[in-house]
Amino acid sequence: MKQYIGGFPELEIFTRSGPGYHAGALALSHARACLSHVISCTQMQHAWIPYYTCNALLEPFEQAGVVCHFYGLTKELALSGAPTQLSQEHYLVYVNYFGLKNSYIHELLAQYENQLLVDNTQDFFAHGYSKGWSFNSARKSFGVPDGGYLYGPADQLGRADQYPVNTDYDASYLLDRLRGAQQQAYAGFVAYERTLSSRPLQISAFSASLLSQIDFPTVVAQRRENFKHYHAQLGALNTLPIELNLDEMPDDTVPFCYPFMPFRGELLDRRMLFEENLFIPTLWPDVLTRQAKGFAWERQLTQAVLPLPVDHRYGFAELDKVIAAIRSQLIFLPHALL
Q1: pLDDT band at residue 151 using 50, 70 and 90 as cut-offs
Q2: Under CATH, to which class is 216-330 assigned?
Q3: Within a 13 Å sphere around the CA of 302, how many CA atoms are in the beta-carbon half?
Q4: Distance (Å, rounded) from C-alpha 156 to C-alpha 38?
Q5: What is the spatial distance between Cα 146 and Cα 31, in angstroms, rounded to a whole number?
Q6: Cα–Cα distance measured from residue 301 to residue 2, given in angstroms and rounded to the nearest whole number
């Protein structure tokens, strides 16, 4: 990059000294860039992918000509219908759902070893494993326009500097939200999402600088405390049959959200929450439009699970507003127990 001397002050880039949070990983531009790099490093021809995921995960495989096969999930979000053994050119992708499936991932690593790809886009804080591949997405957890960290077998991982640095990013929607223009910011966010590609690039200097300034221990602690608060208030109403007691999970568990699935949760009106400035997304609407038969449980998850925000921007006061708004709707659902 050219150096220009003099003129008006630019946005300054700072980087803390010492290894970053993901030292040892390849710092690439996006999760899809990480996947494209994995495909280029392996002899992959087939990929087993959970039906309960977004279409963006499929894009790198489809562009590389890798044949995709869907598998289902049990009620506990474990594999259902996936092969127990993989031939040499087959790989299996598993999503660390809500950042809560770390224990199960270690079981899968023992089974599939280096043919397992862990999608940690819902767990930015997970480091690499002794076997297998894993990648995350900084954009899912922090206000940055790009960033994904890839871990893998040392003899196959390669180097990030074989790719140019990402300069084709847009941070304007982040600045719009910072100044309070929420609708404009969201429109910009959606438009920017559509421009993202699977081309491998290094993380931008802009995002690398912002990420280097984050107090990660504080962020982790806040996420865990927020998750516990939700569970204390809503746990008795949560029908999602997975472990949600954070005290019984591994110490390195950092939740992405609190996945709340009330009885008949598909009837909850997210628009009413939106009108109260509570933005609870649907994970993932792509599931409902796919033409594959079956996968009723995955469709139910998409419609009924509310991923309640637990991130470091919020304290108990904000969480209680979310809880109150949800409880006010639950009263009117059939057989709600309040």
Answers
A1: very high
A2: alpha beta
A3: 17
A4: 9
A5: 9
A6: 49
Q: Which ranges constitute the DSSP H helices of the chain?
A: 31-41, 59-63, 102-112, 172-178, 182-195, 205-212, 216-234, 270-275, 286-289, 296-304, 316-330
Contact between 308 and 322 under an 8 Å Cβ cutoff? The reply is yes
Which of 97, 102, 98 has its CA nearest to residue 50?
97
Q: What is the pTM of this model?
A: 0.94
Cβ(45)–Cβ(90) below 8 Å: yes
Residues 20-44 pLDDT 10s? 899 989 999 999 999 999 999 998 9
The answer, yes or no, to whether residue 6 has pLDDT greater than 70, is no
Average pLDDT, integer, range 331-337: 65
At 282, is the secondary structure helix, strand, or coil? coil
pLDDT tier for residue 268 given thresholds of 50, 70 and 90:
confident
How many helices (H) and strands (E) the chain has is answered by: 11, 10
- Of residues 60, 52, 58, 57, the one with CA closest to residue 79: 52
Question: How far is the first Cα of the chain from the last one, in angstroms, to the nearest whole number?
Answer: 60
The token pair that represents 4 in the structure block: 């220009």
Provide the residue ranges of all domains of the chain, joining segments of one domain with +: 26-212, 216-330
**272 beta partners:** none
Measured CA to CA, the distance from residue 128 to residue 211 in angstroms comes to 18
Residues 6+ apart with CB under 8 A from 89: 43, 44, 45, 46
26-212 is classed in which CATH architecture? Answer: 3-Layer(aba) Sandwich (3.40)
**What rounded mean pLDDT belongs to the chain?**
92
Q: List C-alpha distances in Å: 75 to 46, 78, 150.
A: 26, 7, 29
Grade residue 267 by pLDDT with cuts at 50, 70 and 90: confident
| Cross-strand bridge partners of residue 67 | 46
The radius of gyration computed from the CA coordinates of the chain, to the nearest angstrom, equals 20
